Predict the 3D structure of the following.
Amino acid sequence: MTDYTAPVRDMRFVLEELCDLDGLSHLPAFPDATRDTVAQILEEAGRFAAGAVAPINRSGDIEGARLVDGVVRTPEGYAEAYKGFVEGGWNGMPFPAEIGGMDLPWAVTTAVQEMIMAANLAWSTCPLLTFGAVEALMAHGSEALQKTYLPKLVTGEWSGTMNLTEPQAGTDLALLRTRAEREGDRYRITGTKIFITFGEHEMAENIIHLVLARLPDAPPGVRGISLFLVPKYLVNHDGSRGERNDLRAVSLEHKLGLRGSPTCVMSYGDNGGAIGWLIGEEHQGLRCMFTMMNNARLNVGLQGVAIGERAYQQALAYARHRVQSVPVSGGDTPVAIVNHPDVRRMLMTVRAQTEATRALSYYANACLDRARHDEDDGERRRWQVRTDLLTPIVKAWATDLGVDSASLGIQVHGGMGFIEETGAAQHLRDIRIAPIYEGTNGIQANDLLGRKLLRDGGGGMIAMVSDIAVTAKNLRREANGDGDLVAIAASLDRGRADLERATAWLLDDAANDIDQKYAGAVPYLALAGTVAGGWQMARAALAARKRLDGGDGDRAFLMAKLATARFYADHILPRTAALLPSITEGAASVLALAPEAF
């Protein structure tokens, strides 16, 4: 497996040009998010990711996590890397200074998280969930819980988990059976949870579980779910770690990938009930948990970006050194396979998909920053609508492309990619879970269609489509004979028109029923993601051209940025033409067979 090098140049470009880093730094919440400061942060984070986290990726996959006498042992080097992560203050980047954070935008944190994920996806799932736990506790926890638990969760000294799934209840949380009994100002939790990432480990001093459970008098269905904070170790009044709570990992799942990350079956209350405290109000747990889940969904989408980058770096290194076959243009001497057109097509596909998903992911997080911290109420509401719209798109579209990029990375290696020793296969095994967890990509498509499109009459999507049209217009205006910008604008307009037609069809109740709409939900999300990604690539092309014309920046980097945007416009944006009829004409064949006919 090749070494990892953080793509700091591209990350800075996206933050500065597509996320308006200068604008973020002028918000009162982010006084330190200047270009120079962020550049220093990214350089240092890149060194940490490459030096401390990446070297234990392959070895961690081989060794895996183990459960020994009820204690999870993570692979060699995991705990030491986590200690360095905490000491470096990386866990506190996006959180307020008053609780130990660094007051930096989520957009900047996203860039650092991408580095960690690309370096070692299995290891990175621990801080990912801690971020979500902090978000949920900040939004819904009592003052007492926040005072007790937030400081060490923010630093990462304590890690967090999300406990939703049970053996009989996956996506359908109405089927949850874990119970909570009132005991004064606290609760006793009993039940079993499965698929709990880093539910038990030795890297952090304490593990703070956020657990969904039902009270005895809870109404049926999802309306009767409450959320509880259940620590591995109870916390004494002075903040020190107390006695062990009544919870344990009873087994680890044997997984296709992410083998260094312990995915636990957790048992609560084998000896009288695990002690927990209510987060938010009784029977309102799902609303509280969605704060954590939405954070996780944006971060899971980022996993697709990270693995796309890692697969690209490894495939490119192999293609540059693997000598095989003479050029199709003629010659007698075999050349490195990077010279062959089809290999270059595959590399360009991975490169373009990765740059597009990176741009959209960072942009979505910049929208989140503005939704929370813009000084104007109306602007905050507008940015929140955009964040809500993009969350399922980033999660699903970016992870689907991450899987595709990892598969193409194997293809570039040829037969050697199918051999575990090269490491290319690990990227595909690791990323394959991302379209499944935190709500399968089908669930994300249903969310985009039902909650983000039909519920508001398409207002959020129509507003984004309008912004896309403005970008295409700007490209044509600024082209000044640049054929690349003209071609990118034309392709973006065609993709936008396809998205407009699909959106109008889905909003037309007279033309189709609800089953027909949902039959096209997944291709609709793919279409929306393809266009939104193309929008960001078009914006990047325009920014690159302006920098070139101004004599500013690295010319080779900016020319490559233009070339990659043109490739996306030529080869990836046209996919919308195939997706459109799947949405507007394909429902009948999806629904043709009755369930018993399958």
